[in-house]
Each structure stands twice: as structure tokens, then as C-alpha cells.
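check this:
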Amino acid sequence: MTNPSTDHPDDDTFAALIDAVDRFVRDRLVPMERQVDEDDAVPAELVAEMRELGLFGLTAPTEYGGLGVTCRQECELMMVFGRTSPAFRSVFGTNIGIGARGLILAGTEEQKQRWLTKLASGEMIGSFALTEPEAGSDAAGLRTTARLDGDHYVLNGGKRYITNAPVADLFTVMARSVDKPGAAGISAFLVPAGLPGLTVGKPDRKMGQRGAKTADVTFDNVRLPVENRLGAPGEGFQIAMRVLDRGRLNIAATAVGNAGRLVEEGVRYAAERRQFGKPIAEFQLVQALLADCEVERLAAQALVRASADAYDRDGKAILEASASKLYATEMVGRVADRIVQVFGGAGYMAEYPIERFYRDVRLLRLYEGTSQIQQLVIARELAKRHGVAPPR
């Protein structure tokens, strides 16, 4: 697999980008949160503004029209972007994150010229199709097949809960193509939308993150040219895990940003809400709730930054990425629960953003690998580092 470009934004350029994203989040996205939740759709004009900011090409190398941000820079941006509904992140984050990451890591030059430039500009929308009805946490147990037939592969099977599926132009699909058990039999494929036999189901109705679209995708004898295979035969699972390695840090950073917004809302409300003749911010038990939230947020922020630095230094951070994803997403769930408690009955009402964030952040513990999968990854990586047999 190839290594991405090392051409990254300098400090001044990145500072300007952070400032632009911060203003976009506060001025354009935060005021639209409630409407997006009610309509279950992100307005086209906001998507267009994301394209203009270059968000669709954040991690793509500059030679393909992207911004080429480092993992640390990506995480800093996601912490800023996390101060609004995580549904907005899915619009571009899935596109150039897990949707195009495999192409960045393992694509041929011809594949990159054909698709990566369009994904980076936002002209095309990418999607990552790994999860199946019986292969969620057990990703190596997927059943979708890709049978070689001359100069084509024939895909059959189905994927579930695929982000961006209803609007995707290109799917990175993991399918079993090699006669080997488990992960060794899986290859990766670049599958354009609209091919005969490819069907996208109706959008899922979700508890939260409304506006971020997911759906099932089915393949019924979909014929795909051999040149659409991504990487070597049997290399698909390895590609998927490398994609998720950085993707988990993206989610962890988003969780840190979400927690920052929740703490901000909680502090403001506690200063305004009066009980027993004074602001509830003066009550020690309320202060304790807010203090615990901020301590955990700061701890998660430090862990994410250190893990992103490790990724940039070593080109991978398997244990660190899983630790960040586990801690940060569990942390923001606890923060959301405490902030609802600070708001009291008002926190349960839809007119306040706290109710929506409480629903939205629950998903963070599930996708890109559940918390329990992260625990297994961490334990196995620890065993490898200490030279002992991995736990079973």
C-alpha cells in the first residue's frame, strides 16, 4: 500500500482554516441544528459552503486537489466542528474520511486520478461499505462475495447502516473474493453507484443524528471490472482496518468537540437558571457535575492529541486510536447525561439543544467499532507489545 503525500498546510494556513471553520460552525451551522433535526436533511446551501471551505478534501493529498491535513490537524478541526451537531460532520467526514481513505492508502494512480480528485472537490460523494446484517463487530465474518468471472468480478450480498449510501457516487466495498477463511479472504472494491444490480434501500430512521443519511445496500450480480479492485486480492481487511485506525481518531475528536459544546451550554444555563433565590451555578453539587464534565473532556482532548501525534509519526496508531475512541465516546455520553441533569426538566425538552445532543452522541459508541470492540483491540495490541499470546 502507498503512503499519502507529506505536503501539509503550514501553521499560518492551518490557523486561518481553523478560524474559518469556527466561524462557519457558529454562524451557519449552530443556528440550523434544530431545522436539520426536524427535517432530517442538511440544506444544499450548507453542503455547498462546506465544499467552498475545502472540507470535502481535508485529508486528500494536495496533488489530488485536497488540503492534505495531518492527522493532528484533522483532529483539531473535528474538535471545532464537534461544537455543532455531529450530523454535519457526516456530510463531508465520511466522504473524504473512511469513504476515500482506502483509495488514498491503496489506490493506483489511475484510480486516484479517476475518483479521488472528484471526491476531494465534493463533486462526488464516497461511502464505506463494510458492515453487514451478521457482520458488524465481526467484520472478518462478512458474507458479501466477489466472484472472478473473466475480466470482471460479480458481487453478491448486502451491507447495512451504510453512511452516505442514499447520496453516494462511489462505494468502497469489502467482499469475500479469495478462498481463504476469515480476514484473509476479503478484498476491497471501488463500486460506482448506478451499476445494474446495485440497490440502495430507503434511508434509515434513527434515534439521533438526523440529517446524516444511512441505508442498506444490496448487490445482485453486480459486474465490476477487475481494475476496480482496490489493492491486492485478500488485502481488503487490512485496508479496512487501516481506514478505521484514522477514522476512530476522527470520531474521538468529534466527541471531544461535542463535549465542549455541552459543557458550554451547561455553564451558561447554570448561570442563568435561578432556584432558592440564586443561580444554580452557586450550588456545589451543580458545580461538581460541571467540574467532572470538564476534567473528562480535557483528559480526552489530551489523549486524542497524543494519539494523533503518534499516527503522524508512525503512520499508524492502532492501540492509541482505539483507546481514544473508547474513552472519548464514553466520556461524551457521561457528559451529556450530567448536562441534562444540570438542565433538569428543561434538558428533556426538545426546545433545548441538550435533548438533541443526548440522542446524537449515543451513536458515537457504536460506529467505527463499538466500545467493546475497542476494548478487544486494545487488549490484543497490549499483548503484542508485551510479547504474550493475544487473549481469546
Q: What stands out?
A: The chain is about 50% helix and 15% strand. The beta strands are 126-129, 145-149, 152-163, 170-176, 186-192, 198-200, 214-225, 229-230, 274-275, 278-279.
